[in-house]
Amino acid sequence: MRQVLIGGMLLTVAACGGGGEKAGSDTATPAGAAPAAGAAPTAMAGGSVTGHVKFDGAAPANPTIDMSEEAACKGKYTGPALDPVVMVTNGMLGNVVLYVKSGLPAGQTYPVPSEPVVIDQRGCLYHPRALAIMAGQKLEIKNSDPVLHNIKALPTKNRPFNISQPTEGMTTTRTFTTPEDNVPVECNVHGWMHSNIIVLPHPFFAVSGEDGSFTIKGLPAGTYEIEARHAKLGTKTMSVTVPADGAATADFTFAATGT
Amino acid sequence: MATTIGHVDEVTLGGAEVHADTRSFVRKYVFSTDHKIIGIQFLIMSLIFLLLGGVLAMVIRWQLGFPKQPMPLGGVLPETMAPGGVVLPEFYNSLVTMHGTFMVFFAIMPLLVGVFGNYLIPLKIGAPDMAFPRINMASFWIAVPAGFLMLAGFFVEGGHAAAGWTSYAPLSERSDLSGVSMGQILWCISLIVLGLSSILGSFNYITTIINMRAPGMWWFRLPLSIWSLFVTAILVLLAMPILSGAIIMLLFDQTIGTHFFGPAQGGQPLLWQHLFWFFGHPEVYILILPAMGMASDIIANGARKPVFGYTSMVLAILGIGVLGWGVWGHHMFMSGMNPTLGTSFMISTMLIAVPSAIKVFNWLGTMWMGNIRFHVPMLHAIAFVSMFTIGGLSGIFMAATPVDIYIHDTYFIVAHLHYVLFGGSLFAIFAAVTFWYPKMFGRMMSPFWGRVHFFLTFIFYNLVFFPMHNLGLHGHMRRIYDPTQYDFLKPVQPINELISISAFLLFATQLIFATNFIVSWFKGAKAPENPWEDNGLEWTVPSPPPHGNFVSVPHVYRAPYEYSSPFVTEDFLPQNRELPEGVPSAAPHS
Amino acid sequence: MSWLLPHGASTFVGEIDWLYYLILWITGIAFVLVEVLLVWFMIRYRARPGRKATYYHGNTRFEIIWTSVTAVVVVIIGVLSAGRWNRIKGRDMVPPNATPIVIHAKQFEWLVTYPGADGALGSADDFQVRSQLHLVVGQPVSVLLTSEDAIHSFFIPAFRIKQDAVPGMNIRVWFQPTEVGEYELGCAELCGLGHYRMRATVTVHSREDFDRWARDRAALSVNK
User: Which residues contact B226 (CB under 8 A, 6 or more apart)?
Assistant: First the structure.
């Protein structure tokens, strides 16, 4: 009888330790950081920072990816597949992550956005190549290729994960519980696939599109340090003052780094 | 040759102890020290794990036969295992791991050693119980938490162990490589606990057989089932600690930062393989020897004839037990170890084919000139011989090192191991369960349903596993989630479908056995003392035997397989039957 | 559902396939013998009323004969295997003119490093390709097999070669393709969730085609 009880307890303890992580319902976490000093989350305000990220000078050639081993992906490209490390279109730079680095009131918490951040595996590349997400926000991982991708995230402050998506159209959801500066993400079946995720304690971020444009919304009035980060070209910061319910603009310029 | 009997006199002589059984229900049936009850407890536990292992195999076969199709009832599985009912590759790796683990450690091994070792040894040697009844009870009740621990792995984050039942390092020790952490740890702990259970059982068996044989039960009058269980127990005693040691090293690598198997810090991945297979090869003989021994008992009974070449059969059992320690490297021909070792292990492996061949010829020799009764146990025992032959012959291909280059880690190996473990061990288990069921439960299983189960199982089983030889010859690798990813495997995918459908039918057929087992327990025809007209000592006591087994200590006069003896009119002659003065007990034989 | 081996295209096919067919014949005969005897005994010696089995304990002479025959047969197979094994896997059997390449196995790709135009590894013109093995017909190649993480196994069925890649070990495996064509390489040791997809294409070229491919490929500035 004793053994049955011990066995039952062991089983219960084991089951509680993680409880079989389900894709859609992760270990429940409070939105963003735990409320400090009992501060309740503030509603989003109306201010925003809009702008463009430019690229100065001739765009460096992006590396070619030999996708011969993966015919299904290679076939999606006319001509050789390029890894859009530096995505420059008409002098505008995409794949730059912009976010509020400082200036928010200390201890303030914000509601986690309900819409997920999507990372799509398409043509055996991550789209987008860089992303920002808020701690507690859902990361929706999509496989738009008819091949196996695994997505391996290697954070140090958060729990790492490595999940497979063998079929086209599969979607899996994960969440990061703690802010972290850089979470590298990779596919092991296609070793050229890399992405980087920054996990922020607030929802004030954006990723510049192909045309270089970005908008960070919902900021209360104040002066902020906005950082623009590119995986290869480095970071640039700028001080921006946002009027209440008003818009501020900020433009960043990156240039080629000497290789 | 007198044998020390010890406390046997107090327990069985006089009858008073046999009748006055004042134990409570719990002491009689739950925490019992009676070897017969413990054997039945192991039987129930093992059959449950056999069923579970079979269920896992069904999921594997679904994915292999119909890759990436949503599985019927797959919706009950969580998203981490099978989103939308489609098995994920991580889960598939867990499935193949746990199928092997459950079948080897929690089904076949306990069925052969825990069930029949416990049940048969005291009865067949004329003893009232095991030498250490309380340790025997502990052996079962330690196996139970081991079972729970192994089941728990399905419910933890990261899923269950997924590095194969062979758990090769570094995959098994690095959660960043396998995606599994807690599951792999639970796997390790469970097997360490189970190892303890096995070790406790084994020295009980050895001591009992050496010390508690009834007067006249000389070594060379022991039934082959007992010889095989004796040698098996020695193998268990010597091999399980090696596994435990290796697993402890793995566990330490996983948890406390040692580096036995991690190359970056000076460890050796191949060390795991050497340790595991040094255990693992004797383990597979543990999984076949009792089956061979019981098959011998049943074939002699069915053929109504002495076992052909009893002495050679004993020597073959001993030979297999000894030689089995020298062949482990044949699992590692491709491992990267020095090729010269490949040659030496190839030689020892070729040699071990000989004692197995002797046994097959002697089973044939037993049936030759017999008067064969095809009762259900005999059907299974004959199938055992024929299927084990196939498994043994396929082993020659992989023993030949150059051919192994091609077939290692392909489905040819999977075919081989299933022919010896299912075609061999499991058919022998079906034979043994049916044969000793009347003694265990006092009732007969339905012979009609027994035949239906046998024929359907035999047919579907061959449809499942024979084509796997061909898959392997085509180059089909093991443990792959989706064979259609390879162009060269696409043409053989229809074979995978055939195998899968046959597997579903094979599994369904086992429900007949399960039903027969359960229903006969309550409704089966009452069993007489000796329904099979067998010579063993267990058939001289009631079905089921009382606590203490024998009213008085039996005296043994002859060898175990004196069927069709010219000295009596019946075609069987129990070992303890005393013949009139002047009548020989048995003919002198080699 | 054939017991024939699929078409092979390396010099090892002669060694291995011959031995396989020999063993197939021997075990096939043993198989037929045992099963036919079994079935015949089942029919001939089935119980019928009035019959009794023959009280017979064995025949030592028969036993010695069939045991010896078995032992001799397996020893012969062993001897035939030993020479072939050494020719294929022997560490000093690598042809001296074999092209050296490095294959670094990692979850879940095969990183192949080619020696470039100078034919020597470790020089500046080496280039690395993911999961594509390009070979010259008739030219032996000597692979240094390494692993980044778990144990993988380098398996090209058409060439009848297999060798585990073990982290911490540098293992040499050589082979010589004999026919131009496209083949496949699969991983034959469970190595994680992508194990089933750890494949590579194997292309055997004529010398000219290979040189052209190698030139173009080395010139490509490729994302590592």
Answer: B120, B121, B124, B125, B209, B293
CATH superfamily of A45-108+209-259: Carboxypeptidase-like, regulatory domain (2.60.40.1120)
Burial status of residue A170 (CB atoms within 10 A of its CB: 0-12, 13-18, 19 or more) = buried
Angle, alpha carbons B505-B510-B513 (nearest 5°): 145
**What are the φ/ψ torsions at residue A63 (nearest 5 degrees)?**
-65, 145
**From residue A189, how far is each of A124, C88, C114, C117, C198 by CA, in Å?**
10, 31, 21, 29, 7
Q: How many domains does chain B have?
A: 1
User: DSSP states of C80-96 as a string?
Assistant: HHHHHHHHHH-TT-S-T
CA distance C179 to B84: 45
B567 falls within a domain: no
Query: Quick check: C130 and A147 CB within 8 A?
Result: no
Provide the residue range defining the domain that includes B188.
Answer: 24-540
| Amino acid at residue number A14 | A
Q: Which residues of A touch B155 (CB under 8 A)?
A: 11, 14-15, 19-20
Instruction: Please report whether residue B14 resides in a domain.
Output: no
Report how far residue B127's alpha carbon sits from residue B211's, in angstroms, rounded to the nearest whole number.
10
Check if the beta carbon of residue A39 is closer than 8 Å to that of residue A110: no
Instruction: Tell me the whole-structure pTM to 2 decimals.
Output: 0.91
- Where in chain C does DSSP place strands (E)? 99-106, 109-114, 127-130, 132-136, 141-147, 152-156, 161-165, 171-175, 181-187, 199-205
pLDDT in tens, B217-238: 999 999 999 999 999 999 999 9
CB contact under 8 A, C63 and B368: no
How many A/B residue pairs have CB atoms within 8 Å? 76
Peptide bond into B483 cis (omega under 30): no
**Are the CB atoms for B118 and B197 separated by under 8 Å?**
no
Reading the block at residue C192, the tokens are 């994680």
| Complete DSSP assignment for B117-158 | IHHHHHHHHT-SS-S-HHHHHHHHHHHHHHHHHHHHGGGSTT
pLDDT single digits (tens) B554-576: 999 999 999 999 999 999 999 99
Question: What is the three-class DSSP state of C10?
Answer: strand
Same-fold call for A45-108+209-259 versus A111-201 = yes
DSSP letters for B333-348: TTTTS-HHHHHHHHHH
What SS3 class is residue A158? coil
Contact A18 B156 (CB under 8 A): yes
For residue B16, being part of any structural domain is answered with no
The alpha carbon of residue A163 is apart from the nearest alpha carbon of chain C, in Å, by 8
Q: Is residue B181 within 8 angstroms of chain C, CB to CB? A: no
B-chain CB neighbours of A18 within 8 Å are 156-158, 182
Q: How far is B187 from chain A (nearest CA, A)?
A: 12
> pLDDT tens across B479-524, in order?
999 999 999 999 999 999 999 999 999 999 999 999 999 999 999 9
Chain B nearest CA to C33, separation (Å): 11
How far is residue A114's CA from residue C19's CA, in Å, rounded to a whole number?
65
> Lowest mean pLDDT: which of A19-23, B279-283, B429-433?
A19-23
On the CB side of B6, how many CA atoms lie within 13 Å of its CA?
Answer: 13
Give chain B positions within 8 Å (CB) of C193: 88-90, 93, 162, 179
How many residues are recorded in chain C? 224
Q: Give A11 to chain B, closest Cα distance, Å.
A: 6
| Residue B10 is assigned to a structural domain of this protein | no
CA distances to B338, B355, B395, C63 from B359, rounded to whole Å, are 33, 6, 16, 10
**CB count in 10 Å sphere of residue B44:** 10
